[in-house]
Design a protein that fits this description.
The complex is a heterodimer. In chain A, 38% of the residues lie in helices and 24% in strands. Chain A is α/β, with parallel strands linked by helices. In chain A, a hairpin with a 2-residue loop joins strand 1 and strand 2. In chain A, helix 3 runs parallel beside helix 5, helix 4 crosses helix 5 and helix 5 packs parallel to helix 6. Chain A is globular and about 55 Å long. The chains are: A alpha/beta, B mainly alpha. The interface between A and B is large, with 53 and 36 residues.
């Protein structure tokens, strides 16, 4: 039933310090194949850093990361990142390239596709996010919502086994958030393995299979959304929810 | 009125200007352009190398670039040209048998402009948002490929106006190579004017030289302003309202 070649992602006892600042203090996270895990928590709790450690944009000081049961820490990190798509708060599209080129660049250089193949694939991905007609525009001429959908298409074009979303809707105008969330919901329902760092409590509650609440570099609480949102066990989660809901 | 007449005769002796024009066009102008363009190209290549060394993760490379840049930017151009021309000229003469100071002139101009262009490139590359490198690496590109394919091209684009300004400076600085004693066929605009002024005892050939320089530099200055304005405002293209995004949901189930 899954339309994606999804994988299972596990982070074990992840520690990371920047100098004397102990940012991640023994994080465990398990995301079963085809499921969506959302990570919530106050700013500065280490959520975004955790994503970057799990695709090795930042190397952890300690701990292990497993994709489909195999440790990836000894493998080439560039290879790992080809298997994990990432979507950023600020979109990070390449402003000097067209929308289609944003997607075809990695297909040509990393997947070895010809120019024509890569463009065809880019157009197919753009069609899925409803932006094929923007293929030859520059990112600056797109709205924030459209840019983020292109960024999602760019990540999906690499046929990732897991998708990371780092506050993907936080930089969007309120009226544009809905479209991007709808697209993310479609991906989750389509069987993509996803880790979603978000401030959208509605999405976290309705779409994710597991919710993880982080604070000050530790996982405070984790479980099915109904349990966390209706029956929080810790003071910290209760406090957080009463602040954001 | 005597003073005005005297000034007019010293600077606007049309006969003297007319006499120097053929040589300006045949010898001076081509030499100035060759000096500026060739050292501009070499300086750009050197500048790119220095910029990449300057942002390198290797401390030794950063230091070499830093020291080179500090020295070459800190010296008066006239001193650099003399030291390189007279210092290395004899060595080249021994090695190649060539007595022409022309290659030394180009080398000195290239080494100087390389230092400036290196700083221009470095600031451009460093001004590119960190998210660009992160997004490229997240797709699975190595650090080197990410810099080469995404970060450096954006950095260069931003500093195009500064780069053209540097080329204008190079056109003007090329006048200093007269000190190396160029052969008759190698003389550039300034020296053609200077020779003619010495022969006629009249300053008008300098005015002719000035007009030649301005004919090169003023259009370039306006070209800089034009690209600068265009980069600021961007190519006009109408944004469409985000209606597609507002109704979506047709994503992956399609």
């Amino acid at each position: 039933m899954s339309e994606f070649a999804s994988g299972t992602l596990t982070a074990k006892n992840i520690h990371l310090s920047f100098g004397s600042n102990h940012v991640l203090r023994g994080i465990d996270l398990h995301v079963e194949k085809g499921t969506t895990a959302s990570v919530i928590g106050p700013s500065g709790s280490g959520k975004s850093t955790l994503l970057r450690v799990m695709n090795r944009l930042i190397e952890p000081d300690q701990g292990d990361i497993l994709l489909d049961g195999r440790s990836v820490l000894k493998e080439n990190p560039d290879e790992l990142r080809r298997r994990i798509g990432m979507v950023f708060q600020q979109f990070n599209l390449f402003p000097h390239k067209t929308v289609a080129e944003n997607i075809s660049l990695a297909l040509r250089k990393l997947r070895g596709m010809s120019k024509e193949e890569a463009r065809d694939e880019a157009l197919a991905q753009l069609d899925l996010v409803g932006l094929k007609h923007k293929a030859d525009s520059r990112p600056a001429n797109l709205s924030g919502g459209q840019q983020q959908r292109v960024a999602i298409a760019r990540a999906l074009a690499m046929k990732p086994e897991v998708m990371f979303f780092d506050e993907a809707t936080s930089a969007l105008d309120p009226e544009l958030v809905k479209g991007v969330l709808a697209l993310m919901t479609d991906l989750a329902k389509g069987g993509m393995t996803m880790v979603v760092v978000t401030h959208e409590m509605g999405f976290s509650r309705n779409v994710s299979d597991v919710v993880t609440f982080m604070d000050a570099g530790v996982v405070v609480e984790s479980g099915p959304p109904e349990q966390l949102f209706t029956n929080p066990q810790t003071d910290r989660l209760q406090g957080f929810l009463s602040d954001v809901l | 009125m005597d003073i005005l007449n005297q000034l007019a005769e010293s600077f606007f002796d049309w006969e003297a200007i007319g006499e120097v024009l053929p040589k300006m066009f045949a010898v001076g102008l081509p030499n100035t352009i060759v000096l500026a363009v060739v050292s501009g190209i070499i300086g750009t290549a050197l500048g790119m190398l220095l910029a990449l060394m300057g942002i390198s993760r290797n401390a030794a490379a950063r230091w070499v670039a830093r020291i080179y840049t500090d020295i070459l930017r800190g010296l008066p151009p006239v001193l650099t040209i003399l030291v390189i021309g007279f210092g290395f000229g004899p060595i080249i003469r021994e090695l190649t048998g060539s007595t022409s100071p022309y290659p030394m002139a180009i080398a000195a101009l290239s080494l100087m402009s390389g230092a400036y262009i290196g700083e221009i490139f470095r600031s451009g590359i460093q001004s590119v948002d960190k998210g660009q490198l992160e997004a490229t690496r997240a797709l699975g590109f190595s650090y080197g490929s990410s810099m080469r394919l995404v970060v450096v091209p954006q950095g260069i684009r931003r500093v195009l106006p500064a780069l053209v300004n540097q080329f204008i400076a190079l056109i003007k600085e090329s006048s200093l190579v007269f000190m190396l004693g160029l052969l008759a066929s190698e003389r550039e605009i300034f020296q053609i004017g200077k020779d003619a002024a010495a022969n006629t005892g009249n300053l008008s050939p300098y005015v002719a030289a000035a007009i030649f320089y301005l004919a090169l530099t003023i259009p370039l200055t306006h070209f800089v302003n034009w690209i600068d304005a265009r980069m600021r405002s961007g190519r006009p293209e109408k944004k469409e309202p985000d209606e597609a995004a507002a109704v979506v949901g047709k994503g992956a189930q399609a």
